[in-house]
Amino acid sequence: MLPVIALVGRPNVGKSTLFNRLTRTRDALVADFPGLTRDRKYGQASYEDYEFILVDTGGIDGSEQGIESEMAEQSLLAIEEADIVMFLVDARAGLTASDIGIADHLRKQQKKVFVVANKIDGIDADSNCAEFYQLALGEVYQIAAAHGRGITSLLDTALQPVIAEYAEAYREANPEEFEDDLVDSLYDDENEGEEVDGERPDKPVKLAIIGRPNVGKSTLTNRILGEERVIVYDMPGTTRDSVYIPMTRNEKEYVLIDTAGVRKRKKVSDVVEKFSVIKTLKAIEDANVVLLVIDAREGISDQDLSLLGYTLNAGRSLVIAVNKWDGLDTDVKDRIKSELDRRLGFIDFARIHFISALHGTGVGHLFESVDEAYESATKRISTAMLRRIMDMAQADHQPPLVRGRRVKLKYAHAGGYNPPIIVIHGNQVKDLPDSYKRYMMNYYRKALKVMGTPIKIEFREGD
Ligand code: GDP
Ligand code: GDP
């Protein structure tokens, strides 16, 4: 489970600049799917071996207590759900009343807070930052997000120890989840050209059921579990955690990650749910396969596309269920199908199912695609095969010339699974145009018959 870090601060202090800088690398996969709206408020980032979820909380200015605006509410919810808060202030503007308001709010939350003074470029940083100690939130870290200054040191000295502590605590609480070494070692195949021996340990497939509120996630979960029951689980106190439900189907084991469960419980006591993007993000990160539920009657919303973006960003396998397919006229069905084609046509690897969670129609078939997606995502592919496909792709369509020299791809091997990562070494690969990278990806997808999962290709300079 990943720690959540929220970027907090008044507008214009540089939150999105820092956000972009920290999440940049992870956006690569989404960039391969033109047509997808990229939500810039939530992102995965990594630093050395540590991954975390980063949330840009948008414009809070410290006076929100009592304000009902949805945006402020989402920001406050994000702070509540975060493990760590990076509180940005503007070193040029100096300390403001809003900063003090935000600091008061943060102090009440009892979170780990780091004060980060941004925009120290071209000013006397020490003397400009001194007044931020009045916030009484400890050390003031100096950065210039726009220029990348101070960020490594912020990550090293402030974040790294806390994230490591978080990871360690989680590891201790969930030792069984860290027996993956065998699986990973299978992919370090030094033995070029050899099929790698060894069985993949049979582990339950973690299936996250995600989607906007009211699309039918709970109804579907109940249907899958085969019981019409109100889901009442004993949950740890937080709103941001999903319910994990082990189940067996056709003698295969699964764990359903139910992102709707907590809300259902709350409904009983009539508490209005706030849709937690963080909860969904964590479920996606923790899953092997994501089942995205869309409401046929609502069409495809931007929020659906954002959820899709997060799923791709995390490299997860994907199955799409268009729910509430019951009782629709043929012409309505046709209209919905053409809208799906138009807006989701670019994710050609994901199977789409039309189902009725209410009546159970089509629900059983979902698992065929879930199994297929998981198998595609974890399939072991030999170095020889990857290399052969690379050679074929190059023979069919040569990489372009760059400054008079042809880009040359020399060697390929597997770099991981779920999603499958293919590492390609070559000359001048940094100059490869995106169109050629996409060509390679599609070539591999067809050759390997991979369905249900994105593929990631990493290009590396040299042999
Ligand atoms: P947000 O509203 O907090 O997300 O702030 P933005 O990231 O949009 O940044 C607001 C403005 O500050 C933009 O014009 C940025 O270019 C500028 N900015 C961000 N970081 C720095 C920095 O390190 N130095 C300077 N001089 N300007 C910066
Ligand atoms: P969640 O918020 O995503 O968990 O959605 P729920 O499972 O609570 O469903 C929201 C509403 O949609 C409820 O009134 C359900 O009865 C209804 N619903 C769910 N699935 C279907 C379906 O397949 N067909 C129809 N017609 N209604 C459905």
From TrEMBL:
EngA-type G domain boundaries: 3-166, 205-378
Residue positions binding GTP 1: 9-16, 56-60, 118-121
Main function: GTPase that plays an essential role in the late steps of ribosome biogenesis.
Quaternary organization: Associates with the 50S ribosomal subunit.
Family per record: Belongs to the TRAFAC class TrmE-Era-EngA-EngB-Septin-like GTPase superfamily. EngA (Der) GTPase family.
Keywords linked to the UniProt accession: GTP-binding, Hydrolase, Nucleotide-binding, Repeat, Ribosome biogenesis
SUPFAM superfamilies listed in its UniProt record: P-loop containing nucleoside triphosphate hydrolases
SMART domains associated with the record: AAA
UniProt binding sites for GTP 2: 211-218, 258-262, 323-326
Protein name: GTPase Der
An example molecular function term from Gene Ontology annotations: hydrolase activity
The encoding gene: der
Origin: domain of life: Bacteria
Source organism per UniProt: Pseudoalteromonas spongiae
HAMAP family attached to this UniProt entry: GTPase_Der
PANTHER family, sorted: GTPASE DER (PTHR43834:SF6)
